[in-house]
Amino acid sequence: MSASRAVKIAATPTKRPEAPQAHPVARVGGEPVIISTRRVSLWYGQVIGVNDISLDIGPGVTGLLGPNGAGKSTLLKILSGQLRASTGAATIFGEPIWNNSEIFKRVGLVPEQDAFYEEMTGRDFVIYLTRLQGFSMGEARRMADETLELVGMAESKNRRIDEYSKGMRQRIKLAQAIAHSPDILFLDEPLTGTDPVGRHKMIELVQHLGAQGKTVVVSSHVLHEVEQMTQDILLINKGRVLADGNIYAIREMIDKHPHTIRVDCDAPRKFAAILATFEDVVSIDFDLEGSGFRIATRDPDACYLRIPKLAREHGIGLRGFMSPDNNLMALFEYLVK
Amino acid sequence: MMATTRTISAASQLATVFSTDLRRLLRARKTLVLLIVQFLPVIFAIVYIFYDEIDGLAIFSETVEGVVFPFLVPLAAVFYGGPALVDEMEGRTLTYLLLRPISKPILYLGKWLASTAVALGLVVLPVVVLLVLVMIAAGGMGGTSVGGIAQIIGATALGTACYTAVFALLGALAAKSQFPGIIYYVIFEMIFPLFPILELLSIRFHMRTAAGFNAAQRLGVLDKLIFDEPLHLGWWVGFLVLGGFCVLMLGAGAAIFSSKQYQIK
């Protein structure tokens, strides 16, 4: 499939007044349109966060992809009703989002920030927020227990949140967002800091919710994370939608660039030597503090699969591996050329 | 999943926010610290009563007038009123609450009620303990009427509610809790009471009126230029003004919280 067929690159606005072009509307997801914006912009003082975005999102999983500072979180905050657009209109089910508390019966959000009532147990946290969705204490308890089971937190649900690992905290955030069975789910960088098991669980759940016909919008700056959840993406940079469509076309573009993965492990030199034997590996750079290294590869899919497998086989303690932001920057530079 | 029934009522959501916040505040470390601070004047008063043969009920009035009203009530209120919402903003948990089908004024009211209940408990409990101790030491009411004591406790309670409402409003307005509260306290409660007319803007003036104390605390020089004698209002006026002021501050705070956009980073 050629990139030009599958991905619509946003048109450069014309300067000819005699032939004005219709404002481009990005379209992702299935039918009908659930979330919609028209010419939405948001300024933070003199700085523009979101720049004249029009889009329609339907059911299924949609990836909101862009480097840090691209405007993903700002757009997600407008779509989820946390921020009011400076200009333009944003709607869910045809209803305005901002200050419309009725809408929130059908919306769930996994925020980017690692924020909790730390002294509460995970279960109490989910129960409290589910009760505010209008359920009785008995129902909220039952729904919280079912959801905590679903996200794999049944055994740890009665521990205080300040005792949880990062991955467990992410799962609690997900639980509070889906306990009331929302039709729309927003996830802002949901895989940040998760361990491989938590990551797998989260991806599975997102796919499952999308398959159920829910409208799920996931923001991430890591293409490979989004790719595991969905094929429908919105590429955003500098507050604008740069492209919308199928992820595979984007992959064809990014595969022409070496992809960097940061590996954090116990024995970086030993592990790097093992990984360096593979043909797709272009270069390896070690951290100054000696806690890990960066590996550049021409086959990121294979490399992502091989890292945990080899670490396990060679008894190397793997703390984490992730794609730094600059991969997407390279892609965006390529797209705007 | 089983079928569920969903009833979104303002009363049940208010009760949920209030009860959850109340539990969290009662377990908070700052509550224990503040409880110790609030009991310090009680300890000093007891030492005076037992070792200096001073009239216990006089000590009670002086402690309430000179320590509880000007310092301990605003202290408790600034610790709980402002942070009611600002802690949620700074802790970034406000996002969870704002994305629930709960109206913002209800959320604001629930959090203010919980904060006020804890602040009230911290202020009134030592006052009642002090009263009981001095009555035991004096062997009775010592000429003080039940109505007079009820006035003092009522003024303390309503004054605390007023202060928490003001600090909650400042928190909603500035998205910061302590600093605007301290500025307010210095201007309205320390400087304004020194001037005729302006003193009417101070909560403490009306607390003193409601409690039956001499309301004015001015230096006297300006009084001679403007009035022949300090302004005296009936105790019921004090209660009326405090009640009205509290409702006004609450309404303004809820309106600001409902319309303002908070950036949770």
How would you portray this structure in words?
- The complex is a heterodimer of chains A (337) and B (265).
- Chain A is α/β, with parallel strands linked by helices and 337 residues long.
- Chain A folds into two domains: 3-253, P-loop containing nucleotide triphosphate hydrolases (Rossmann fold); 257-336, Alpha-Beta Plaits.
- Helix content of chain A is 34%, strand content 28%.
- In chain A, helix 3 packs across helix 4, helix 3 packs parallel to helix 5 (166-178) and helix 4 (137-150) packs across helix 5 (166-178).
- Chain A is globular.
- In chain A, 45% of the residues are buried.
- Chain B is mainly α and 265 residues long.
- Chain B has one domain.
- Chain B contains eleven helices and no strands.
- At the A-B interface, strand 8, helix 3 and helix 4 of A face helix 1 and helix 5 of B.
What topology does this entry show?
The complex is a heterodimer of chains A (337) and B (265).
Chain A: H1 3-6, E1 7-9, E2 26-28, E3 35-44, E4 47-57, E5 60-65, H2 72-79, E6 87-92, E7 95-96, E8 107-110, H3 122-131, H4 137-150, H5 166-178, E9 184-188, H6 196-211, E10 215-220, H7 223-229, E11 232-237, E12 240-246, H8 247-254, E13 259-265, H9 268-275, E14 281-286, E15 292-297, H10 300-313, E16 318-322, H11 326-336
Parallel strand pairs in A: 2-4, 5-10, 5-11, 8-9, 9-10
Antiparallel strand pairs in A: 1-12, 3-4, 3-6, 6-7, 11-12, 13-15, 13-16, 14-15
Chain B: H1 10-27, H2 29-52, H3 56-80, H4 83-90, H5 94-98, H6 104-138, H7 146-174, H8 178-191, H9 203-211, H10 221-226, H11 235-259
Helix pairs in contact in B: 1-6, 2-3, 2-6, 3-6, 3-7, 3-8, 4-7, 6-7, 6-11, 7-9, 7-11, 9-11
